[in-house]
Amino acid sequence: MGKDRIVRGLRINRVYHRYLGIFLCTIVVVSAVTGILLSYKKQVNWIQPPTQKGSTKSLSDWLPLYQLEEKALKAFQIAQPDEQHPKIDRMDVRPSKGIAKILLKDNWWEIQINGQTGDILSIQKRHSDWIEAIHDGSIISEIFKLISMNILGFGLLVLSLTGFWLWYGPKYFRKLKESEVKK
Predict the structure, then answer these.
(1) Entry pTM
(2) pLDDT per position as a tens digit, 62-110
(3) Diameter of the chain measured on Cα atoms
């Protein structure tokens, strides 16, 4: 009776393991490919523009943030007239480099501006942001991100446990059989 339960459990476990593995494989492959791309974001300029250098590290010599914002948006609209009504997502202030990176919402652009002079140092697409949004699922929605990452985490945990049982179960079953033969 005990060994029949073990054999039945192994068979059922294989089915769950196989179908869960097929489903999770898609998420894992997307996550792996985008993760590999993200690991090169500082080395490959196409993924993320290289960080420029400004003229001073002292924040007391910088223009106020609102002026940096105005100059950056004005320069962006001149450089990219087809992009309508750009909105700032965040400003990444880098005193050690003397610059601020201004990241725009929804269109993946980055503007690098000299903190002291307000000179535009770079206006480029920042592909690392949309790659990261695909990587974590937030490109669809925050709810999808939460659900998909939980499914991925719990699914990998279940795959690990069922995979262990698929490896250990037959060994255990053989030992059980051998002990019955010796009796």
Answers:
(1) 0.76
(2) 999 999 999 999 999 999 999 888 999 999 999 999 999 999 998 899 9
(3) 89
